[in-house]
Amino acid sequence: MMTVPEYFGSKVFNDRVMKARLSAKVYSSLKKTIDEGTALDPSVADAVAAAMRDWAVELGATHFTHWFQPLTGITAEKHDSFISPSPDGGVIMEFSGKELIKGEPDASSFPSGGLRATFEARGYTAWDPTSYAFIKGKTLCIPTAFCSYGGHALDKKTPLLRSMEALNKQALRILRLFGNTTAKCVRSSVGPEQEYFLITKEMYDQRPDLRYCGRTLFGAKPPKGQEMDDHYFGAIKPRVAAYMEDLNEELWRLGIMAKTEHNEVAPAQHELAPIYTTTNVATDHNQLTMEIMQKVASRHGLVCLLHEKPFAGVNGSGKHNNWSIATDEGQNLLSPGDTPYENAQFLLFLCAVIKAVDDYQDLLRISVATAGNDHRLGANEAPPAVISMFLGDELNAVLEAIENDTPYEGAKKTQMKLGVDVLPGFNRDTTDRNRTSPFAFTGNKFEFRMLGSSNSIACANIMLNSAVAESLRVYADRLEGADDFETALHDMIKNTIKDHKRIIFNGNGYDDAWIKEATEERGLLNYRTTADCMPHLLDKKNVEMLTSHKVFSVEELRSRCEIMLENYCKTVTIEANTMADMAKTQIAPAIERFSADVAKNAAAKKALDPRILCSYETGLVRKLSELTDRIAVKVDELEDAVISLHDADGVVSESEMIRDKVLPKMCELRLSCDEAETITEKAYWPFPTYADILFSVR
Ligand code: ADP
Ligand code: MG
Questions:
Q1: CATH 1.20.120.1560 segments of the chain
Q2: 453 Cα: distance to centroid of ligand 2 (angstroms)
């Protein structure tokens, strides 16, 4: 049997393979492109393509694909085989530099939000050499960006790469001011912790809501849920362990550093965390991870649910986006250093993040907005929809001391003078374990916890990189023109703390009192739903910031806003239709059958002895009958609400109708059905209950 180091990355055209298979000249030219973003020489592309093909064919690949991330949020691929006819009637395996660099998928059915006229439906894909090619099944996958012929981004990778470049540019300006002349680039890196549910395929197949919507639309609270906290970090069941082992092996072969795994709070809920890496690679890896999680599950007779809220009343699933920025020389810019100068630089980068999160709360909220995640945010298990930052007591005390020019009450009582004093060491102690904060400093990185489990992490990181780039731009503009660098620096840090401290909150983010304080006293934003926040993508300040850093064009922003809202409307409409269908064709008939049998029993008893009261049966039948009547009314109302969407004047108004009419009707219908479930004999219930599903994997 091969050991992990032997097979790790065996399906990746990584640096090791490149070094071994490319000539020294081609290798160094490609490496320069990867590390510094220089343009690739066409002859180099041919040599790389040939080496990739040979390597892939040796590993059994027959096809190649440009692998990309359209705005649907999942990945797309169109396979072409390597074969090309040879004069002797056979075939040879061909793959040119041109095919490596550019593809033209027929992608007319991907959403473009009006960016692409039908006559130019094809769009093109362009190789991203900074993310390694890999083999999936029998296909060589080449990570690519996806654009329209007009040059508009139609995917998530393109703006992500642009945002990384924006951050790089502004961060380097700051580093130069601090006398760093050697760093060639600054990159953001991410380690996304992925939560998910595992249930048996047998249960899944019996529930149309799970099959069509990825979440349950009905289900009474089970007698035992997560209240005992006995699942969290508990022993992993053998079937789950076998799944994880298989999953890890597949991920490791693809060079994905899956590192930790454990049970989560809810029964059947688990988490997988990789070791962090450069943001665009982490994004590709997370997309692949989600895909492989589902694929491996099906091999084990299981289904992996990535929905943010598969079960009402049970914790949902999120994704913690651990984010930091570092130089190519390995200096983490969010790590407090050992010297006063490093400390000052750290504080400046820290302030850049504080300013960014406060100024662009709306963009961060928008970046995690989906119909699914709306159910999770603020549901007492996940951060609220209000964004705030947690810094921990020690760092907070330092910032307060700077703001007020007061002595810092640290290990020794000293006045903090930037550029002179050394910061105290920060313990990664219990304080950074405040799990209720949407955006927490955890020692040398920030953990953004609002992402939904099924979200691509691209969106959140695009906004984060861009907003921080903007803070750094403002700082660099001011510092580059300053007469006295140190005074200017001190004032700027002080002013940032003054101006933006409203975003810092170290208390319990799940508390209702906090939401009141945040919105009423601090003026923080609280966009509860996707319909509330998404239109603000087009607010002047946001458009100005994102276009000035060339992350998006105005047209791209308009199209994205439209696509995201369309997606929200479609998702909820499908759920509403599924609910009406299940209520009409499964739930109501099941209740009827049960109640008919109860009535039949009562009649039989009465026939036996007319003195028997049958008050139990009578009461039950009356209650069930009330419920089916109510269900019928609620189904009608829900269906009317869905029909009324035709009157919507554009997607913004449709999304508001979804929020105000459709979603409330869904809740009402569910309430009656769930109530009926609790008094209907289990054998009659038409699909597995929460208890069946949540405790199905043993
Ligand atoms: P936990 O949050 O469970 O205590 P850690 O904080 O050690 O665990 O790590 C959580 C995630 O953060 C992991 O994916 C890890 O790779 C990632 N991480 C650690 N350091 C950094 C960093 N400098 N930049 C980005 N991600 C990081
Ligand atoms: Mg964590």
A1: 568-694
A2: 14
Please provide the CATH number assigned to the domain covering 4-155: 3.10.20.70
The secondary structure element, H or E, covering residue 380 is none
Query: Which band of pLDDT confidence, cut at 50, 70 and 90, is reported for residue 511?
Result: confident
In the chain, how many H helices and how many E strands?
25, 19
- Give the mean model confidence (pLDDT) for residues 175-179: 96
The Cα 582–Cα 669 span in angstroms is: 11
pLDDT one-digit tens code per residue, 455-464: 999 999 999 9
The answer to whether 336 touches 282, Cβ cutoff 8 Å, is no
Residue 275: CB within 6 Å of ligand 1? yes
Q: Quick one: which H or E segment has residue 373?
A: helix 371-374
Is the shortest distance between the CB of 442 and ligand 1 below 6 Å? Answer: yes
In Å, how far are 167, 538, 651, 661, 666 from 534, measured between CA atoms? 24, 8, 11, 18, 22
* Strand-pair partners of 187: 326
Domain with CATH 3.10.20.70 in the chain: 4-155
pLDDT band at 118 (very low <50, low <70, confident <90, very high): very low
- Rounded Cα distance between 8 and 158, Å, is 28
CATH architecture of 568-694: Up-down Bundle (1.20)
Q: Could you tell me if 514 and 508 are in contact, meaning their C-beta atoms sit under 8 angstroms apart? A: yes
Pocket test residue of 276, 283, 286, 448 for ligand 1, highest count of atoms within 8 A of CB: 276
Under 8 Å between Cβ of 221 and 677: no
State mean pLDDT over 621-629: 98
Predicted pLDDT at 417 = 60
**To which residue do tokens 């307060």 refer?**
400
Contact indicator for 331, 174 with CB cutoff of 8 Å: no
Contact yes or no for 154/114 (Cβ under 8 A): no
Q: Is the pLDDT of residue 39 over 70?
A: yes
Q: For residue 219, give both structure tokens.
A: 């289900």
Pairing of strands 63-67, 139-147: parallel
Token digits of residue 119:
């006559």
For domain 163-219+229-411+437-552, which architecture applies?
Answer: 2-Layer Sandwich (3.30)
pTM summary value: 0.94
CATH 3.30.590.10: which residues of the chain? 163-219+229-411+437-552
Residue 324 CB less than 6 A away from ligand 1 = yes
Give the DSSP letter of residue 684. Answer: G
| Dist CA 551 CA 163 (whole Å) | 5
Which residues are paired to 320 by β-bridges?
193
* DSSP characters over 625-636: HHHHHHHHHHHH
